[in-house]
TrEMBL record:
It is found in: Cytoplasm. Its main location: cytoplasm. This is Ribosome-binding factor A. One of several proteins that assist in the late maturation steps of the functional core of the 30S ribosomal subunit. Associates with free 30S ribosomal subunits (but not with 30S subunits that are part of 70S ribosomes or polysomes). Required for efficient processing of 16S rRNA. May interact with the 5'-terminal helix region of 16S rRNA. Belongs to the RbfA family. It comes from Candidatus Kaiserbacteria bacterium CG10_big_fil_rev_8_21_14_0_10_59_10. Monomer. Binds 30S ribosomal subunits, but not 50S ribosomal subunits or 70S ribosomes. The gene is rbfA.
């Protein structure tokens, strides 16, 4: 990834974490694990993990509903000139890491 794409991804991940912490309904813990940006900076994917795992579907539905409001938040809180289209997905890699960690503890 180019330097600018890395900077944009880091800024998006930071602001998404702050926004979700402020706006979440507190029934689950939604954590931003990372963000990826396309090379043309027009699309971004923000990866989240959710605890408890039973709340994943509700949490991802919540963050997807918040996309428009998150874009408005970014307009006023970030230095990005152009905002990419943003999608939120569950970070499967994080779930796999947790599963491996649980297996190594037993």
């Amino acid at each position: 990834m180019k330097r600018r794409a890395i900077q944009v991804a880091e800024e998006l991940a930071h602001h998404a974490g702050v926004y979700l912490q402020r706006e979440s309904n507190r029934t689950s813990l939604i954590t931003v694990t990372r963000a990826d940006v396309s090379p043309d900076l027009k699309n971004a994917t923000i990866y989240v993990s959710v605890l408890p795992h039973e709340e994943e579907e509700r949490a991802i539905a919540f963050v997807k509903r918040q996309r428009g409001l998150f874009r408005e938040y970014l307009k006023s809180h970030s230095k990005l000139k152009f905002l990419p289209f943003i999608d939120f997905v569950i970070d499967e890699g994080e779930k796999n890491r947790q599963r491996v960690d649980d297996l190594t503890r037993t």
